[in-house]
């Protein structure tokens, strides 16, 4: 593996593209009209503002996509029996009977967007080296988003399933991918005489049990901290060098298993997931045709293909405790609180913490001690740790906060004499091993407030902040005195923005969303401070973005 | 001899009663509807003692349509294992008569006496798809049609009345002379 010295412009183009893509494609949110059909009920039975779940929706999900009580009497379309219940008495001489939904539980989703980008984005063209085309960001842009299919339900015996897949993305056919696809065995604690709901088991591909789900977020733009990949400082003009290239981000779906328990409507809930490691960001589809790697299809080598880039399995754990704050115990313990004018979400306070541990892998063509050619592997342990808090007031007002600290070990390559190999020389020097150096770290999070002004209108505001020294260094242009930063990398932090938004439910299944993103001050003009003699950034500007979206599910 | 005399009197009384209490019948399209005699000026009727029930079961109001005389107490019951609510945004279009009955657990019921005539659209504020109607008739002369829209209201005193036919979202009033059996057909359209 070779590393190129940092060049600002490709990075800038990448940043611009990343922003646009993240706005359009990262908010993989889903509601399930299939459930509305089966139960003959409105989306708002489970959703406040789809796909955000209300307390009843959380209980429905916890129960394995079933009504927590008397599910059968609520179904308007009864399930199809895959065996008479009496077969249970014959087991193991008969197959344990199950059910399938009475109709194919399929939902479809489509969204489309319009984006306005501040004209100041064009100022970055001045950073373009001579003979290079400057990246162009259109001021206005229409863009189709996702057309997705999703299906979920319960097979009886408390076995739930979920599959969602983006059939097309951005108007192009079949270039989407699988979101989540898993089977969940709900409440297996009952088989072990453990307390009810204390243990579930999930297997497949799924979003980690993040404190605030990205998949069911109502925001158009993703939480910046979730999309933060830890790429070490690689600007050859800056003394700090970090051989870290960890593409892992918290919002990515993982393949593996998850043990979980507790309820999301009150008390504790936890999750422990063991998932494939893939820190290179390269999936099996990026390695086609190799005679040595099992391919998913069309190969005589058999196998299923590979999704991970290491034998190591990453571990994620989270724990939350939610205090429902109603005075009346009966109301406090109910799925929804009994208000004087009708059931409503609880007033609650939730505290949580989470931890992710993995090992980033980088492989280089180097040499063994005897000088023969060998692959040298840098296995760099990393972790993400943080906490979260939510205060919810009844139906209508919610405050959320999340903090994350990211830490990656930094192994720098050395040559046979034990000297550090400058990263820009990796293509020519021969590494034989690594030594520990300054870890690559970042921190940040977000706070937001969400107010349900009317049952059909949400007003929100969010602050995102991600601080990363290495990202800042990577964002500097080739002039070492430059202390400004391109597009979204101000001097002190990689990304921070304030995003007010408003959403309108035109119908329970059709939503119009608007977001305006105030981005930090930036500059492309450098001068010297006549007093201090230090470089300063002049003519600061903001490259703000407005996004409007229409989304419908059916 | 005395017994024969009493029987004769009884027969005469019965015939007389029949002669002064008529019937309104006819057909309402489009089908399942409610027909009632509208307010009769200067006439009041005692409130009935029966307390009909409006149930919530399987995320539905059951029955979906209930006709009662003004002054009737209706009992609202929750038979679901999920929480429900009952409220109505108006009575007869009068939003000042909106009311929220609140929440109560499974098996419990909550009474409400309807003192104003009109259409009461029932809603649940957690399950917006739930829909029911109570039609509060100002007189005891009301009925529901069959599925084909056929109806018959008995024991209506002879006279001239405004007769109202109501189908969800549509209403029509006709003046009907009641003397014996009178016929009134309604063709409701939006």
Topology:
The complex is a heterodimer of chains A (554) and B (190).
Chain A: H1 8-25, H2 33-39, E1 47-49, E2 52-53, H3 55-62, H4 71-74, E3 80-81, H5 87-90, E4 99-100, E5 106-117, E6 140-154, E7 159-169, E8 172-173, E9 178-185, E10 200-206, E11 230-231, E12 245-246, E13 254-262, E14 267-276, E15 313-324, H6 329-333, E16 337-339, E17 342-344, E18 348-367, E19 373-393, E20 397-414, E21 433-454, E22 457-467, H7 469-475, E23 495-507, E24 510-517, E25 525-528, E26 535-538, E27 545-553
Antiparallel strand pairs in A: 1-2, 3-4, 5-6, 5-27, 6-7, 7-8, 7-9, 9-10, 10-13, 11-12, 13-14, 14-15, 15-18, 16-17, 18-19, 19-20, 20-21, 21-22, 22-23, 23-24, 24-27, 25-26
Chain B: H1 2-20, E1 21-29, E2 34-37, E3 53-57, E4 60-62, E5 65-69, E6 73-78, E7 86-88, E8 99-102, E9 109-113, E10 118-122, E11 132-137, E12 142-144, E13 150-157, E14 159-167, E15 170-178, E16 181-183, E17 186-187
Parallel strand pairs in B: 1-16, 1-17, 3-6, 5-11
Antiparallel strand pairs in B: 1-13, 2-12, 2-14, 3-4, 6-9, 7-8, 10-11, 14-15
